[in-house]
């Protein structure tokens, strides 16, 4: 193994601080190095004098005196129509009314935001920073109105102005700043933190274009840019907070005033990060924050001034483009982002701006650096923000002049890391030559960290060179790579997986060597959760009202285990009828959406069988559609009487495939080709319909989730870290058909084995089966073989298109074990049919599903993060105190 050469180590003496990176900062205090700050700076004194007056002025302002009666709400909407949008009542479109309404609502949030943030600022509690490249927020207006208990009043207000609130809500564009579960989890966690009054901020990127918009043409996915900011977006607030982030350049050794040698990272290539704050409505006047960074050219820096002076404008602005481009697009998560320099620059841009901002905030209070871990907790949402680790080390050592070891102690007590996948292709690695070019100083720091880490491993396990190779942050491949997940583990005090099985696999497989070295305590499980506010209270008003009526109050929203009190009603026929009437109404609503969106009429009395999630081989939408073909063939062979005994089904798919993921895109094509045939087969009629809902996103999910009878979560065992849509469906009384994988397992434990349809290979059998397949080939299930024969015979159009897909089963060794699980899957689907015919038994299970879901509230998850990882004492919040147990 090549051992890295240490760059420079140990006691870096304190220097005259360099703060070149920080250029403009938020509000009051000018950022000055702690040692040079006079004890009572003049500008602070001045502020104190006027502070009260500002407070009084605000209390007198229209912002603080907002009334919530219908006439006042109408006045505020009309005001914004004229003052914010510069329109009059003679020029009203729904979208404009939506925007005026959103402004009116945002005013109320703003006030809460200011009060909450002022309180934090004054109390200075330990704060949590959730670093995530993705926040899949979904629409804001409905959520905000419900959080502030203003929906009914606004409904009346807009009605009096000639509009229906539901129509206006549909005008809002989803900010799709995420790919799927990981980004939506971040949004649910911000929502929970806001509800719990936990001082947590999200940090992320404000992509100009979110995840692409998907349409389907001739059955194929077609991507278009998601220009979500095309229209004014009233839910973000640009701030005068800016930091410069540098790239490339070189590392120089310089002498400081004391004649000591120091390393400096120098570069002329800078891009400016500007902050946009997104309020997160909480409860009782509390409002959280997500700070998103957008890229801009630095002051003057982007211009070629010589060219500018000569009037050569084209040339002078050429490099401006680069700066704006940096945060223009969200990368879809496929295998192609690895190695992309722009993605690496996005990651660094994001963490550098965020860490600078946090350091700036910390320094306001003039605490010693040793206090940093008592005031700051960083949570890394997957490996994407891992560069924050060497970045903080760099700032502490190079800029703040701390000794290396002191700095590292602070870093490792501050960071914690959540792993969200065990799939090797999703674990980020960066080629060293890219890292060295883009971030030369960070590469040196990583080498040093690695060296010191390996030395310690060697001390503990002397002579085990293989082990050193295995745990090295630098992978000795060609080209050499930085293993970001390993860097995250080494730089964090806690590593967690997102469901029990996943966390077990994280320790047993992914980080086994690390758990031997660090001990098991560093590796914990915190099972994911979902926001009951968005995913039940908001998405399913019918069920919400029934639950509230039955339980006597809305307290269950903040205390989800109270849902258990529904269980005694499971066998009550009247309650079952009310329950299923709500499900039916939700299905009718989805039916209308399907008609408008796909031009397809489906019967809401049919069994709605839904699989909506990103398209990926491990999630096995392929298994689902193969099962549909099997069902189609069986139905065709049946007599009309026999067919009538099978409950009619509507099989609904939705989800985007990464643009470069050819196989996933072929599955979309196959689904649509099957739909074409099945939906137009007169023999089949309404017995089976297949729907592919294009452009699946959060707001569509809110319509789909409450309308499922069955939803499918059928990943190959051991591949789905958790899944969160499974939780959303079950809490809405949808049963699930799933594999023994991810959070399905804990859902089973909570709701009871009888209320879930599980099937298939277990995680600990997968390796053996794959091994056997390698030697003996794949023995295709007979039913599956005839399904494949039908595809290859051209029943669903040009068969040759599908060859690469079929090859994944036959020549590819069936890595995802579709053939292995096919028979069990079909049998379980038959069980689903049989139960659906027994209306009362089905209803009872549906009720028990909801009743058992108390554990899966995001409030529980965030509570666990707070107490087990961040050591933020939730109950002591609000008066500013925090535990300092770490
Ligand atoms: C995803 C997993 C899901 C999990 C979410 C949230 C990534 C890398 N991982 O199973 O695939 O529910 O994270 O934890 O997107």
UniProtKB/TrEMBL annotation:
UniProt xrefs under InterPro entries: Glycg_phsphrylas, Glyco_trans_35
Keywords, alphabetical: Carbohydrate metabolism, Glycosyltransferase, Pyridoxal phosphate, Transferase
GO molecular function, one term: pyridoxal phosphate binding
Names of required cofactors: pyridoxal 5'-phosphate
CDD domains in UniProt: GT35_Glycogen_Phosphorylase (cd04300)
Keyword Flavoprotein: no
CC per GO annotation: cytoplasm
Origin: domain of life: Eukaryota
GO terms for biological process, alphabetical: glycogen catabolic process
Modified positions (N6-(pyridoxal phosphate)lysine) in chain numbering: 728
Reactions this protein catalyses: [(1->4)-alpha-D-glucosyl](n) + phosphate = [(1->4)-alpha-D-glucosyl](n-1) + alpha-D-glucose 1-phosphate
Enzyme Commission number(s) of this protein: 2.4.1.1
Family, per entry: Belongs to the glycogen phosphorylase family.
Purpose of the protein: Allosteric enzyme that catalyzes the rate-limiting step in glycogen catabolism, the phosphorolytic cleavage of glycogen to produce glucose-1-phosphate, and plays a central role in maintaining cellular and organismal glucose homeostasis.
Protein name: Alpha-1,4 glucan phosphorylase
Provenance organism: Hesseltinella vesiculosa
């Amino acid at each position: 193994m090549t051992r890295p050469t240490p760059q420079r180590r140990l006691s870096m003496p304190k220097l005259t601080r360099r703060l070149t990176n920080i250029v403009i900062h938020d509000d009051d205090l000018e950022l000055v190095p702690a040692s040079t700050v006079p004890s009572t700076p003049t500008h602070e004194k001045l502020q104190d004098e006027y502070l009260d007056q500002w407070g009084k002025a605000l209390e007198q302002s229209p912002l603080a005196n907002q009334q919530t009666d219908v006439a006042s709400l109408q006045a505020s909407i009309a005001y914004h129509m004229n003052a914010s949008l510069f329109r009059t009542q003679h020029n009203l479109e729904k979208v404009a009314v939506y925007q005026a309404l959103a402004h009116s609502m945002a005013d109320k949030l703003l006030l809460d935001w200011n009060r909450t943030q002022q309180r934090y600022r004054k109390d200075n509690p330990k704060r949590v920073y959730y670093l995530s490249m993705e926040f899949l927020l979904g629409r804001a207006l409905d959520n905000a109105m419900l959080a502030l208990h203003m929906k009914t009043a606004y409904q009346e207000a807009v009605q009096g102005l000639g509009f229906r609130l539901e129509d206006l809500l549909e005008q809002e564009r989803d900010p799709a700043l995420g790919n799927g579960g990981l980004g939506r989890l971040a949004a649910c966690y911000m929502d929970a933190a806001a509800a719990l009054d936990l001082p947590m901020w999200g940090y992320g990127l404000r992509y100009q274009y979110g995840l692409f918009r998907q349409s389907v043409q001739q059955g194929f996915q077609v991507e278009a840019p998601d220009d979500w900011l095309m229209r004014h977006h009233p839910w973000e607030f640009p701030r005068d907070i800016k930091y410069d982030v540098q790239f490339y350049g070189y590392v120089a050794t310089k002498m400081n005033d004391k004649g000591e040698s120091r390393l400096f990272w120098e570069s002329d290539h800078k891009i400016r990060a500007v902050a946009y704050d997104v309020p997160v409505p909480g409860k009782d006047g509390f409002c959280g924050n997500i700070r998103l960074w957008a890229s801009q050219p630095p002051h003057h820096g982007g211009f070629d001034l010589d060219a500018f002076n000569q009037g050569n404008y084209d040339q002078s602005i050429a490099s401006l483009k680069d700066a704006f481009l940096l945060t223009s697009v969200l990368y879809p998560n496929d295998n192609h982002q690895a190695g992309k320099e722009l993605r690496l620059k996005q990651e660094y841009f994001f963490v550098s701006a965020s860490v600078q901002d946090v350091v700036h905030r910390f320094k306001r209070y003039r605490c010693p650096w040793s206090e940093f871990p008592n005031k700051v907790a960083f949570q890394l949402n997957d490996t994407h923000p891992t560069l924050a680790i060497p970045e903080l080390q760099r700032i502490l050592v190079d800029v703040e002049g701390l000794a290396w070891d002191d700095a590292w102690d602070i870093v490792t007590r501050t960071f914690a890391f959540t792993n969200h996948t065990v799939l090797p292709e999703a674990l980020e690695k960066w080629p060293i030559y890219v890292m060295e070019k883009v971030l030369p100083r960070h590469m040196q720091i990583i080498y040093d960290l690695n060296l010191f880490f390996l030395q310690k491993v060697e001390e503990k396990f002397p002579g085990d060179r293989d082990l050193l190779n295995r745990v090295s942050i630098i992978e000795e491949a060609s080209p050499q790579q930085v293993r970001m997940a390993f860097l995250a583990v080494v730089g964090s005090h806690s590593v967690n997986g997102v469901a029990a099985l996943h966390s077990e696999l994280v320790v047993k497989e992914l980080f086994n060597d690390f758990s031997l070295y660090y001990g098991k305590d560093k590796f914990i499980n915190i099972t994911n959760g979902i926001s009951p506010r968005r995913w039940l209270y908001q998405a399913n008003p019918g069920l919400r009202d029934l639950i509230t009526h039955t339980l006597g109050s809305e307290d269950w929203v903040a205390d989800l285990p109270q849902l258990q009190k529904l269980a005694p009603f499971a066998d009550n026929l009247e309650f079952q009828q009310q329950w299923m009437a709500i499900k039916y109404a939700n299905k009718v609503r989805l039916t209308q959406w399907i008609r408008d969106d796909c031009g397809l009429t489906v019967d809401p009395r049919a069994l709605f069988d839904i699989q909506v999630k990103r398209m990926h081989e491990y999630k096995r939408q392929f298994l689902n559609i193969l099962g549909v073909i099997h069902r189609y063939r069986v139905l065709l062979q049946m007599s009309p009487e026999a067919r009538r005994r099978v409950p009619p089904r509507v099989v609904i798919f939705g989800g985007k495939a990464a643009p470069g993921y050819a196989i996933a895109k072929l599955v979309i094509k196959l689904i649509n080709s099957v739909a074409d045939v099945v939906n137009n087969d007169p023999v089949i009629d309404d017995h089976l319909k297949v729907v592919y809902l294009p452009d699946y996103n959060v707001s569509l999910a809110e319509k789909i989730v409450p309308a499922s009878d069955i939803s499918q979560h059928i990943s190959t065992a051991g591949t789905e870290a958790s899944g969160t849509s499974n939780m959303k469906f079950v809490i809405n009384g949808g049963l699930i058909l799933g594999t023994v994988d991810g959070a399905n397992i804990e859902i089973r434990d909570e709701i009871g084995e009888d209320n879930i349809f599980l099937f298939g290979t277990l995680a600990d059998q997968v390796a053996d089966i794959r091994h056997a397949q390698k030697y003996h080939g794949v023995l295709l299930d007979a039913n599956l073989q005839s399904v494949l024969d039908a595809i290859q015979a051209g029943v669903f159009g040009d068969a040759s298109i599908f060859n690469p897909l079929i090859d994944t089963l036959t020549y590819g060794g069936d890595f995802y074990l579709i053939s292995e699980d096919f028979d069990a899957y079909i049998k379980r689907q038959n069980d689903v049919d049989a139960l659906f015919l027994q209306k009362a038994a089905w209803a009872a299970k549906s009720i028990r599903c909801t009743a058992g879901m108390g554990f899966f509230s995001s409030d529980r998850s965030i509570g666990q993060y707070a107490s087990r990882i961040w050591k933020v004492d939730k109950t002591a919040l609000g008066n500013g105190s925090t535990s300092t147990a770490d």
